[in-house]
Amino acid sequence: MSQPILRLSAEQQFAEELEELKKLDKNTRPENWLLSPHSVVTYLMGGKLNNGFEITPKYIGNRRLMEIAVATLTTDRALLLYGLPGTAKSWVSEHITAAISGDSNLVVQGTAGTSEESVRYGWNYAKLLSEGPVPAAIVETPVMRGMKEGKIVRIEELTRIGSDVQDTLISILSEKMLSIPELNNQVQAVRGFNIIATANNRDKGVNDLSSALKRRFNTVILPVPESMDEEVEIVRQRVTSFSKSIELPIEKPILEEIKRIVTIFRELRNGVSTDGKTRLKSPSGTLSTAEAISVMNSGLSLAYHFGDAGLKADDIASGLIGAVIKDPVQDKIVFQEYMETVLKQRDGWKDIYRACREIV
Q1: Do 99 and 190 sit in the same domain of this protein?
Q2: Is residue 201 domain-shared with residue 312, that is, in the same domain?
Q3: Geometric angle at alpha carbon 106, from 101 and 109, rounded to 5°
Q4: What integer pLDDT is reported at residue 2 of this predicted model?
Q5: How far apart, in whole angstroms, are the C-alpha atoms of residue 307 and residue 278?
Q6: For 75-119, what is each residue's pLDDT tens digit?
Q7: What distance in Å separates the CA atoms of residue 38 and residue 224, rounded to the nearest whole number?
Q8: pLDDT score for 205
Q9: Residue 308 above 80 pLDDT?
């Protein structure tokens, strides 16, 4: 008996959409691409197909950014998605890869401990000792597999990886070849291979990319959502998707609560109230859209398991404060000022003011 999966990959979750797009796709597909570039962008941005089938948007924002990102992958340049934490870089990366390769699982997760062997290849040391350096003793990395199969490889948080390890990508991206000197051999990339890397600008200065490596990437900056409505819709979609995936019913409409959380985040992020009348101090955290989604998901879980399943201010207050107050001294002062000057004065917001005040 198969066990329910906690989180399906993009190509599993949206398999029906990808299949419908593939059936109707009349445009030219680059070699080893599942869909044409035009259909990949349609998959990302959403829309109604000729047969009436509805494609749900995966990215809500500037369509041109997605067109530039997808067009980059048809060239010999790799793609770097860059921006603040929580601007959907990994989300976009996963969905682009799912639409192009049908497999979004070739991933290298960048950390301070990511080694050269995680990018190039490793060895099965038991086999290496018994048989010596033979092809069967090589442990393939996602990069090597992507090169052999002509697929897109994702590298998450590139600037978290040490500079010496980053630079192992230079020959892979420029020569489209991975040498294996122990075997006097090499792996040559099959058409369709490319790399999508992500990096956030809060990590600038940690392990900056060398100029040689930067030249191998085309950088697309993903901005924070421009409008309130845009950000609200992103949060609504992601929260609804999360609730379905863990079978958490939404008993009452949550749009108004989403609007309140997004309003609070945008005001603190921008340092000014929505009406422009009150100047505010900004906390040390990013208050990203991803964190707003997390606050809503946490609140819904509290409401369902420890309440009457109806989302209330008490359910979202703890998650909200946890997202805002990263520095227990400075951020606490900033949020207390915001509560007194904005939340307390706003009509219909007394419940969230009281819920937050009980915790802070």
Answers
A1: yes
A2: no
A3: 140
A4: 66
A5: 35
A6: 999 999 999 888 899 999 999 999 999 999 999 999 989 999 999
A7: 24
A8: 55
A9: yes
Residues 208 and 245 in one domain: no
Q: How many helices (H) and strands (E) does the chain have?
A: 17, 11
Looking at the structure, do residues 68 and 217 belong to the same domain, yes or no? yes
Residue 154's H or E segment, with its range, is: strand 152-156
Task: State how far the Cα of 150 lies from the Cα of 153, in Å rounded to an integer.
Answer: 9
Token pair listed for 357: 């005040």
What span, in angstroms and rounded, lies between the C-alpha atoms of 79 and 97? 11
Give me the CATH number covering residue 214: 3.40.50.300
Hey, which residues does 48 pair with through a beta bridge? Answer: 54
Of 302, 327, 320, residue with least CA distance to 262: 320
Structure tokens at 189: 């990339």
Q: What are the pLDDT digits (tens) for 9-40? A: 999 999 999 999 999 999 999 999 999 999 99
Q: How many separate domains does the chain show?
A: 2
What's the sign of the alpha-carbon dihedral 116, 122, 126, 128? negative
Tell me whether strands 138-140 and 185-188 are parallel, antiparallel or unpaired. unpaired
Residue 122 phi/psi, 5° resolution? -125, -170
Residues of the domain holding 274: 228-359
Partners of 54 in the β-ladder: 48
Token pair listed for 116:
């050269």
